[in-house]
């Protein structure tokens, strides 16, 4: 429907809206209606024009109707509705994407009539500026309070709108409210209380104010300066569209009372800056504030510079000059870290200590001054929480901006910023994305694991991030778990062997390398036994396994789940994150949330294992503890947690912690221990000396050298499960038919935790798909995703199938996911493998049930989630590298077998743990006698501590067994075969060959 109302003449509008004509000033233009709600705008969605609702949950969108009202402010109808919102919800009016955007730049603001309920609730009002359409625009927001009864006209000047920092549909465009390309508006209704509303006559009013088009900014909200030097505060005037000023702008300035003393610490200044009409946009003037030297050691002191602006929009904050802290022992880098920590800790107030124990999400920083106001110790980016644009430069600028805020605190304690870089810097567009841990476990290559960690650390630190929430050291015991791909495998010995990744991330175990520009603080997670949660035990939403209960004996806990943490502590890991899950070890306590288990965190991790880093909670995990919020804080801190990840609740946490300490329910010594641990890592990272980003390594992000490491990891992670007739490797002279949902989908190939928490299918990140890798290798390749193209005349088929991305409990089997291939994948396998010799590659985070089609498949490859370098997969398919990967988890015959793991009494899988054929040109020959000889030599290597020789001898024996067993894997073969791989990883080479000899005899 055409928006005739929007194009109506001013005379007609005045006739329709007589009160508007009489209320406006004589020199103001007539208001221009946006919505009259008389039926001229339909309930519809993009690309058509329309009004539509939205919400966080299925029941959150409000109900809407056009209601007849005798008291309607305009016409006979109003927009009315009801709401009962638990998360968030509201409604939008989007203009048609097929029509030109609207120009609102001639007006002062937008107004409407609201039927007040006098409930005191705030209602957010949002306008949509620029971009392709209403759903790909830049969002600007303000709010009004419903503190009246009956109809009232609400006026919202455009100068009141601020850029949304918590959410932008396209990440932001130019961060300028231009008003020349407007796409509509939206209202967010109050959550938590049932209510109704009525709205009428949305219109534009007034004459544009230069204060909207002209803005005064300062170079930075905080201006640090060394004592005795002169601070320079840059004051800049800018206009929308970079036009010269139409009218003069004046800025009156004066230093004001802060923590610094006028006349002693600085020389007061005042004056006026004038920007005449015609001044070019971007013109900058400087205010100088001289500071004085008194030679005494002091904490930092602040000098606010108050600005009064006429003719333009004033800065959102009063800039502060800060005289840097100086002369205090903790600032002396020559002192031992423990002495620096003790000095600083002894100076801090309780509020400052509480701030150090608090971590907030960057998206919560709508008031960045809270960093100093609450003395926050840490910020993080959750999955998908990225700057705009998502570039290394923007990351560094964002984090430096947050870090600058800490300069306004007394002791200028730097933030420690953290991200989930779980397979490369997976938050950053263009970063090198490694295979997920399940694939790294398949490589059985500790040296390569360390290299992947080193590449990740270098790329993360180059964006200004010094802390990585990785690696995950869970021992995954049930592949129905949605986090199973975060595990290196089901065997604690395998997980321990891959912990070289910690050295890749951190450097040497004593922490001396943490100051380097290519190292980050690592996090061992999720302590402890999250990989043992039982299917069906989760009580979190629709999850089935994640955040559930692990029920084990103390012996099982020690041998299976705790063992990787012993190794991590020995390797000097800097932080540990507890699990969301609960632990039941038969001690009479039942299932207790790990964030409440002081016996495990304080008792085992810190006291018995000697962990000297700090413990960080998981995202809002303390909210899952029993009792009220004060009890959550008391329990978690008492259990040994040192820092709380409270993404949007940092104010509540700090207040509760302070209250609990003052009341004596949390001991000051516990707080001091927590803060000392946190400060120790900040000192080790060199953040006090160099708080800002060192971007010297940014040029290497996504570089060929880094991608080569990822390519090699992708190649070594490929596990060849079957290879009838030696189909693989392919020859480049062969005509190859490629099909399947995951052949050309880099989003599926990289999986969850890629750019966003859950990941996404499609062209999400730069890289090479499997199909592109095959083509770049020079293969003669034809591609048909659904295998609908004719299949005649090909030498071989490659069908790439598997899963779509997921993360955590969202990916639990039974929560919309299964271990079976999709109908489309099954059809593609059937068609291609029915027409030619075929290799099936399964791109997935866990085994997929393939037994019913195994006979028709010539070659089967577990590709896991290989990351961005699909050329690594092509390398093994074409024989540039041999297949060498081994199963890091048991591949089940059916879901009914689960959980099934190496060491189980009943063990009869499709493929055993450790299975993995090779395409090396030379396969060892021999039989029983050869195995006896290998066993004797392996035992000798074990006695002499010759690990390299021992591993090589066991590998030869394994290949002999695999060649004999072929496709006829029975329980008698599988169980000792899997046991042998565990024995190999624990250094018992002679016993490993004995087990392989047993499997050989049974084959």
Automatic annotation (TrEMBL):
Residues 275-295 are annotated as: Disordered. One of its GO terms (biological process) is cellulose catabolic process. Its EC number is 3.2.1.21. Residues 206-308 form the Calx-beta domain. Gene3D superfamilies: 2.60.40.2030, Galactose-binding lectin, Glycoside hydrolase family 3 C-terminal domain, Glycoside hydrolase, family 3, N-terminal domain. Keywords: Calcium, Glycosidase, Hydrolase, Repeat, Signal. InterPro entries: CalX-like_sf, Calx_beta, CBM11, Cellulose_Degrad_GH3, Galactose-bd-like_sf, GH, Glyco_hydro_3_AS, Glyco_hydro_3_C. It catalyses: Hydrolysis of terminal, non-reducing beta-D-glucosyl residues with release of beta-D-glucose. Pfam families: Calx-beta, CBM_11, Glyco_hydro_3, Glyco_hydro_3_C. It is an enzyme of class 3 (hydrolase). GO terms for cellular component: membrane. One of its GO terms (molecular function) is cellulase activity. Residues 1-25 form the signal peptide. Belongs to the glycosyl hydrolase 3 family. This is beta-glucosidase.
């Amino acid at each position: 429907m055409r928006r005739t109302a929007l194009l109506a003449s001013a005379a007609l509008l005045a006739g329709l809206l007589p009160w508007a004509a009489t209320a406006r000033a004589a020199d103001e233009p007539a208001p221009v209606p946006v919505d009259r709600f008389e039926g001229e705008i339909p309930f519809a969605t993009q690309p058509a024009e329309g009004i539509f609702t939205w919400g966080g949950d299925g029941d959150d969108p409000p109900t809407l109707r056009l209601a007849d009202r005798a008291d309607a402010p305009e016409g006979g109808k109003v927009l009315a509705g009801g709401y009962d919102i638990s998360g968030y919800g509201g409604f939008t009016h989007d203009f048609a994407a097929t029509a030109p955007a609207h120009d609102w730049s001639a007006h002062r603001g937008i107004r409407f009539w609201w039927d007040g309920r006098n409930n005191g609730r705030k209602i957010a009002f949002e306008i949509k500026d620029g971009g392709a359409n209403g759903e790909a625009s830049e969002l600007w927001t303000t709010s009004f309070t419903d503190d009246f009864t009956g109809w009232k006209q609400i006026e919202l000047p455009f100068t009141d709108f601020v850029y949304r920092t918590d959410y932008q549909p396209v990440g932001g465009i130019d961060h300028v409210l231009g008003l020349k390309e407007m796409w509509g508006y939206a209202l967010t209704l109050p959550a938590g209380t049932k209510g109704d509303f009525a709205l009428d006559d949305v219109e534009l009013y007034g004459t544009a104010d230069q204060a909207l088009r002209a803005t005064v900014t300062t170079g930075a909200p905080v201006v640090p300066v060394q004592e005795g030097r002169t601070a320079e505060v840059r004051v800049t005037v800018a206009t929308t569209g970079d036009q010269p000023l139409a009218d003069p702008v004046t800025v009156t300035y004066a230093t004001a009372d802060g923590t610094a003393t006028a006349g002693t610490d600085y020389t007061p200044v005042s004056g006026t800056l004038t920007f005449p009409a015609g001044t070019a946009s971007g013109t900058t003037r400087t205010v100088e504030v001289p500071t004085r030297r008194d030679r005494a050691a002091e904490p930092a002191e602040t000098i606010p510079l108050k600005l009064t602006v006429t003719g333009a929009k004033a800065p959102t904050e009063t800039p502060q000059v800060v005289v840097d802290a100086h002369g205090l022992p903790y600032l002396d880098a020559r002192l031992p870290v423990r002495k620096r920590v003790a000095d600083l800790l002894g100076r801090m107030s309780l509020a400052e200590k509480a701030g150090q124990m608090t971590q907030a999400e960057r998206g919560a920083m709508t008031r960045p001054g809270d960093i100093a106001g609450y003395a926050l110790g840490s910020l993080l980016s959750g999955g998908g929480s990225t700057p705009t644009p998502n570039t290394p430069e923007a990351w560094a600028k964002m984090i430096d901006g947050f870090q600058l805020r800490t300069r306004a605190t007394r002791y200028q304690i730097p933030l420690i910023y953290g991200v989930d870089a779980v397979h490369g810097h997976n938050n950053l567009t263009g970063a090198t994305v490694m295979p997920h841990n399940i694939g790294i476990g398949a490589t059985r290559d500790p040296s390569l694991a360390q290299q992947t960690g080193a590449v990740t650390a270098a790329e993360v630190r180059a964006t200004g991030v010094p802390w990585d929430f990785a690696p995950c050291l869970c021992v995954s015991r049930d592949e129905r778990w949605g986090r199973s791909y975060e595990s290196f495998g089901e065997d604690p010995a395998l997980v321990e062997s891959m912990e070289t990744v910690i050295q890749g991330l951190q450097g040497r175990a004593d922490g001396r390398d943490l100051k380097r520009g290519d190292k980050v603080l690592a996090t061992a997670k999720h302590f402890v036994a999250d990989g043992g949660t039982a299917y069906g035990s989760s009580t979190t939403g629709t999850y089935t396994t994640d955040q559930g209960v692990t029920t084990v004996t103390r012996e099982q806990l020690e041998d299976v789940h705790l063992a990787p943490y012993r190794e991590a502590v020995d390797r000097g890991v800097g932080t540990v994150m507890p699990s969301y899950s609960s632990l039941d070890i038969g001690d009479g306590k039942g299932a207790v949330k790990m964030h409440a288990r002081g016996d495990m965190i304080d008792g085992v991790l810190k006291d018995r294992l000697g962990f000297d880093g700090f413990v960080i909670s998981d995202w809002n995990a303390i909210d899952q503890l029993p009792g009220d919020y004060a009890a959550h804080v008391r329990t978690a801190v008492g259990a040994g947690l040192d820092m709380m990840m409270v993404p949007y609740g940092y104010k509540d946490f700090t207040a509760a912690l302070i209250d609990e300490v003052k009341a004596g329910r949390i001991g000051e010594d516990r707080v001091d221990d927590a803060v000392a641990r946190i400060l120790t890592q900040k000192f080790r990272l060199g953040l006090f000396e160099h708080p800002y980003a060192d971007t010297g390594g940014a040029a290497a992000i996504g570089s060929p050298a880094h991608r080569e490491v990822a390519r090699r990891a992708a190649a070594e992670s490929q596990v060849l499960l079957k290879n009838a007739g030696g189909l693989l490797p392919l020859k480049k002279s062969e005509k190859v038919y490629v099909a399947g949902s995951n052949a050309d989908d880099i989003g599926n190939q990289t999986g969850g935790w890629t750019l966003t928490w859950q990941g996404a299918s499609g062209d999400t990140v730069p890289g090479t798909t499997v199909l592109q890798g095959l083509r770049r290798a020079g293969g003669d390749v034809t591609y048909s995703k659904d295998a609908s193209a004719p299949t005649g005349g090909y030498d071989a088929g490659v069908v790439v199938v598997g899963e779509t991305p997921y993360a955590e409990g969202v990916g639990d089997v039974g929560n919309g996911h299964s271990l079976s291939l999709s109908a489309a994948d099954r059809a593609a396998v059937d068609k291609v493998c029915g027409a030619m010799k075929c290799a099936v590659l399964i791109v997935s985070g866990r085994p997929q049930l393939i037994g019913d089609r195994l006979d028709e498949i010539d070659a089967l490859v577990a590709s896991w989630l290989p990351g961005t370098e699909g050329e690594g997969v092509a390398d093994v398919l074409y024989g540039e590298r041999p297949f060498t990967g081994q199963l890091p988890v048991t591949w089940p015959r059916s879901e009914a077998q689960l959980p099934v793991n190496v060491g189980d009494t009943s063990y009869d899988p499709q493929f055993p743990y450790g299975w993995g054929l090779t395409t090396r040109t030379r396969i060892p020959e021999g039989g029983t006698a050869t195995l006896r000889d290998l066993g004797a030599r392996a035992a000798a290597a074990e006695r002499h501590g010759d690990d390299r020789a021992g591993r090589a001898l066991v590998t030869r024996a394994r290949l002999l067994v695999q060649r004999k067993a072929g496709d006829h894997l029975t329980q008698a073969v599988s169980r000792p075969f899997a046991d042998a791989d565990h024995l190999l990883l624990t250094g018992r080479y002679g016993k490993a060959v004995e087990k392989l000899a047993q499997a050989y005899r049974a084959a």
